[in-house]
Design a protein that fits this description.
This protein has about 900 residues and is α+β, with helices and mostly antiparallel strands. Among the domains are: about 100 residues, no CATH class; about 130 residues, OmpA-like domain (60s Ribosomal Protein L30, Chain: A), CATH 3.30.1330. The protein contains twelve helices and 40 strands. Strand 4 and strand 5 form a beta hairpin. The protein is rod-shaped, with a radius of gyration of 56 Å. The N and C termini lie far apart (about 185 Å).
Length: about 900
């Protein structure tokens, strides 16, 4: 071919190519955008069943790219559903050589989606979702028939999404939950659905409230696998509180959550994995309250969860460590006894709900620096204290009754004292074995719990203990045990009303404690009370310092726990090896008398051994003390107070107790103070089967009454006279007051019985003094209050002389007793004799007995009868003086009431 011809052909070809290119460009740049936009509007609206709007469509046929601007999908109500600002797609046809549909570049700018969960639970795009369900999810993928070529794969060189936003509204909640996610950024490179390499990708974004997330890694489609990292930061928990309410009755007031972990996805016929690895979760400034409240009961500045591994397909989760650092948990109980934290528990599962199949475990749970303020308003005065620096470490936590977790815990008690606990526990098996230790625990915060029964306030005291305790709640009745030692030091209880100490001690030591439920027992090897001080008060109104405020009111008994039929409650075994008091003191301050009485029993050294509930065991008692700081007091014998049928056989002895401190009581009840005197006691008490037999031998030595006291409570008896009759020549009053009675008799009151017995003695002595004088003289029941004379005689006969000797003997034993002597003469009998004597003196000539008429004619000397009565009284006085009775104690009297009434030829005696 000639050169001109060839040139012509080339020119024609170039022209044709130019025409083709121009046509291609015209179709691509001008016609294709219109056709594509029309297809999007029509077919898109039809497919989505919603109005679709498109701003502009741009096609670059040379770059093989398409850009769609301002696409918007309107929902049925006309509100925006989805859209974007710009979508750019560039095709790479060379990937067809690899049997892949190739997209060299995909850029999506400012996409937006608005999702709404309707009140009925349906999603606003529910009609667009493909049918799904267990059958569809489990249907295996169909393999391509043999010999059939595989479908084209998809290749994306670069995928970039920027400025994406997703808004979500949940109208199933009240109020509705709303959240916006974005702007989001997504980057993906070299993605292939045909497999053969991992494609890197990256997602990142934020919500309207500053929450951020990121997701990056690699993905491969054949087989489907992906791995990478995912993280969320600063999720605002109050925003999602509506969803937490489904699980727990709690109000999330504050807090942000951050989470990050690796993930792994593999999905093919041989291996299926969907797991999170080495995750870490952090919660900051968490604030929780019961529903409807705005005051946080739980405030935790930081919670860390590390080492999170989750196998979603295998339904297994593992957490390496949970750490709570600092914070506060407020524990409160209202006046009705309701615990505030109890309102924040998990909701009960719905009826018929089955337990989940998930398996889980936690390596360690650690709490550090937690503060627990406690306020209890169920007490008359609110109790407030705090547990500080609470630290807990719990290991290897997993479900199952046989799970054993080592526990270590400690805390500071209200700023004073420390508590520690360690040992294995079975958190889901209701079992625990703990070693407990406490030192220097301040007991005063517990004072409000003691102010009602009895009315005392705890003002000082510390507690220490070392013990081992176990608990097992698996059976019908829980089993427990406690073994160790307890020490309470520096205790002080005062009366809130009078602000005076009532009980104090330097130390209370309990060693060798062994208590438990199986078998039921409460045994202590030794109890030692060091330097106790008990100050008992009787206040002005007669109330006692230890009396309950509810005294006199019926106390409701707790309902008995129902036990299976035929099963009797096992008997408790109780015992104390030895109980010791070292250097104790008891003081009674009685302000119900004036002046106030103060009685003391000091230097108490007591030891009681073998206290036991075993009926065959007798406890040995040995108590030594000093009354008033000087007089020795001893209590010895045996008893068994821990037994149902108590046995007691005690002897109480004292010598030389000063009576002057009892002066206020004497003034109130006897009407006289006490100037001086000593008290000696020999008491015996025996109780067998609730029956009491008591001997009370009381000796009063040199009792001397003081001044008269005007008291409305004083007895009307002649007290001085009674005491003079009771006081022997050595100045001693010896009383023997036996008492018997049944302790179960509601009318039996030991002190009341003794007082009535003593009072009866005084009444008998005051009203029948000569009965006691006769007994003193050994005269039995002989009446020494008078002696009789033969008519007209002024000298006593033999019988009268015997009585007179007995009276002298008794008076010699009662030197403080004075005697009034009154002689009488009988006008008839004595007068007859005196007339006969006077007749003979006047008529000596008459021999023999005069006639009645002669006697009647005698006019008796008016002084004859009084003189005879006086001679008889003088004669008795002289006889008593001759018997050694001081004449100063003998008083001749006339006009006595008894003599005036009874008359007769007698001498009457009365004591004074």
């Amino acid at each position: 071919m000639s050169r001109p011809a060839a040139r012509t052909i080339l020119l024609r070809a170039a022209l044709a190519l130019s025409l083709l290119l121009a046509l291609y460009a015209a179709l691509g740049f001008l016609l294709a955008p219109r056709l594509l936009r029309s297809a999007i509007l029509k077919q898109g609206s039809a497919a989505l069943k919603r109005e679709v709007r498109v701003g502009r469509v741009e096609v670059n046929p040379f770059a093989l790219s398409v850009r769609i601007r301002d696409l918007e999908v309107r929902d049925h109500g006309g509100e925006p559903l989805a859209g974007w600002g710009s979508l750019y797609v560039r095709v790479t046809p060379l990937r067809l050589l690899h049997r892949e549909l190739g997209l060299a570049e995909v850029r999506l700018d400012q996409p937006a989606v608005s999702l709404t969960l309707q009140p009925d639970g349906a999603l606003n795009v529910q009609d667009l979702l493909a049918p799904s369900g267990p059958a569809a999810a489990q249907a295996p993928a169909k393999a391509a028939p043999a010999g059939q070529k595989a479908q084209l794969g998809l290749y994306i060189g670069q995928l970039a999404i920027s400025g994406a936003r997703v808004t979500f509204t949940d109208r199933t909640r009240t109020p509705a939950f709303r959240s916006a996610l974005g702007p989001l950024s997504i980057a993906l490179s070299s993605f292939r659905t045909a497999g053969g390499g991992d494609s890197p990708y990256a997602f990142s974004g934020a919500t309207e409230s500053g929450e951020t997330f990121s997701w990056s890694g690699t993905v491969d489609s054949r087989p489907l696998r992906s791995s990478g990292t995912i993280s969320f930061a600063h999720l605002k928990l109050p925003k999602y509180g509506a969803y937490i309410k489904d699980q727990a009755t709690v109000e999330v007031l504050d807090g942000s959550l951050s989470y990050g972990s690796r993930y792994e996805l593999a999905w093919d016929a041989e291996k299926r994995v969907l797991a999170l690895r080495d995750g870490r979760l952090e919660v900051e400034q968490l604030g929780l309250a019961p529903l409807g409240q705005k005051a946080a009961l739980v405030a935790l500045p930081r919670v860390e969860v590390a080492g999170i591994d989750v196998d979603l397909l295998g339904q297994e989760a593992r957490v390496g460590a949970v750490r709570v650092k600092g914070g506060e948990v407020r524990v409160g109980r209202d006046a009705a006894g309701k615990l505030g934290l109890s309102e924040m528990g998990p909701r009960p599962p719905p009826p018929g709900a089955k337990p989940g199949a998930w398996r889980w475990s936690v390596g360690t749970v650690e709490v550090e620096g937690l503060r627990v303020p406690v306020e209890d308003r169920s007490t008359p005065v609110p109790a407030r204290f705090a547990l500080e620096q609470v630290a807990v470490k719990l290991g290897e936590l997993r479900p199952g009754p046989e799970t054993v977790c080592p526990l270590e815990a400690s805390l500071l008690w209200n700023g004073k004292g420390k508590v520690e606990a360690r040992g294995p526990i079975h958190p889901f098996g209701k079992r625990a074995e703990l070693e407990l230790a406490a030192a220097g625990l301040d007991l005063t915060p517990l004072a409000p719990f003691l102010e009602s029964q009895p009315p005392l306030k705890l003002t000082a005291g510390t507690l220490g203990l070392k013990a081992r305790t176990t608990f097992d709640g698996r059976g019908a009745e829980p089993r427990w045990s406690f073994a160790g030692e307890v020490r309470v030091e520096g205790l002080s209880l005062v009366s809130p009303a009078h602000r005076e100490d009532q009980i104090q001690w330097r130390a209370l030591e309990l060693a060798g404690i062994d208590a438990g439920s199986t078998p039921p027992r409460a045994v202590v090897q030794s109890v030692r009370l060091v330097a106790p001080r008990f100050r008992l008060h009787v206040w002005e109104d007669g109330s006692l310092s230890f009396a309950s405020k509810a005294a006199g009111k019926p106390v409701a008994k707790p309902a008995a726990t129902a036990r299976p039929a035929g099963r009797a409650a096992p008997a408790w075994r109780t015992g104390v090896g030895s109980f010791q008091i070292a250097g104790g003191e008891v003081a009674l301050a009685d302000r119900s008398v004036r002046p106030p009485a103060l009685l003391t029993l000091g230097d108490i050294q007591a030891r009681i051994t073998h206290l036991s509930s075993d009926p065959s065991v007798r406890s040995v008692v040995d108590v030594r003390a000093k009354a008033g700081g000087a007089a020795p007091v001893s209590i010895t014998g045996t008893l068994n107070p821990l037994q149902k049928e108590a046995f007691t056989d005690l002897k109480v002895a004292s010598r030389g107790i000063d009576l002057s401190p009892f002066g206020p009581y004497a003034g109130k009840f006897l009407g006289y103070g006490i100037q001086k005197g000593k008290l000696h006691l020999d008491l015996g008490y025996k109780i067998v089967r609730r029956s009491l037999t008591a001997t009370n031998v009381v000796k009063l030595d040199q009792l001397t009454l003081g001044d008269k006291v005007e008291s409305p409570d004083a007895t009307k008896l002649p007290v001085k006279l009674a005491l003079a009759i009771l006081t022997d020549r050595d100045g001693v009053i010896d009383l023997d007051v036996p008492v018997e009675g049944n302790l179960d008799d509601p009318e039996f009151r030991f002190g009341k019985v003794i007082w009535h017995t003593v009072l009866n003695v005084l009444v008998k002595v005051a009203t029948s003094p000569f009965s006691l004088l006769s007994a003193i003289a050994g005269g039995g029941q002989e009446d020494l209050s008078m002696i009789a004379y033969a008519p007209g005689e002024d000298a006593p006969d033999a019988a009268a002389q015997k009585r007179l000797a007995a009276l002298a003997k008794s008076l010699s034993q009662r030197p403080a007793l004075g005697v009034e002597i009154e002689g009488t003469a009988d006008p008839e009998q004595d007068g007859k004799v005196l007339r006969l004597q006077q007749f003979r003196e006047e008529h000596p000539e008459v021999k023999g007995e005069p006639t009645p008429a002669q006697l009647a004619a005698v006019e008796l000397d008016p002084e004859a009868l009084p003189e005879l009565a006086a001679e008889r009284a003088h004669g008795v006085r002289d006889a008593l003086v001759a018997a050694g009775i001081d004449q100063a104690r003998l008083f001749l009297v006339e006009g006595g009431e008894r003599a005036r009434k009874e008359q007769g030829a007698r001498v009457y005696f009365s004591v004074r």
